[in-house]
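[09:14] KT: can someone run the structure on this one? pasting the chain below
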Amino acid sequence: MVHFSYYAVPAMSNPFPTIVIMSRAEAGHYLMSTRPEKGRSLTYIVSIGEPGSKVPAGFIGHPARRLRLEFDDVEMNPEAAQARFGYLPPQPEHIERLLRFLAAAGPEDKVLFHCQAGISRSTAASYIFMCSYLGPGQEPEALRITDYASTRGIWPNSLMVKIADRMLERNGAMVDTLERWPT
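[09:31] RB: done, structure tokens below
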């Protein structure tokens, strides 16, 4: 039996969706749970993995709206990583799909973000979503919400954040907030 804990930012007392961030293994257990406060209460699932990797147990057929993004956890020198090792770095299309998918999410929704370890790509996706949701000037609050919702601590993928910062026209605010965040 696997035991894990999670921390969710509750939507009831906040004007934003409930955010849950986990590893792929944790997400599988969470999604398979029949407890109403766990997997069955989700309205959105964002699953991020390496190209060709497995989705967590319970993802396929789950009643929540589901998005699967596949790219490697590349942050530095994405061109070299792709050319030399065949890695697929995050692309603007991935961030665009994420933002479009979650565009209708509201305070009553519950969103699960997961990647392999639940530390880098999933926390970046949560941070990007919350920056978009809360609007310009709220980047520190968006990162605080992401940090609170994580099961393992955060180390958001900086390349994803840089792409989103440009897309959302934040002029470096998202990147600056991330660089100043205590690790």
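[09:33] KT: thanks! The chain has one domain: 18-180.
[09:34] RB: yep, looked fine to me
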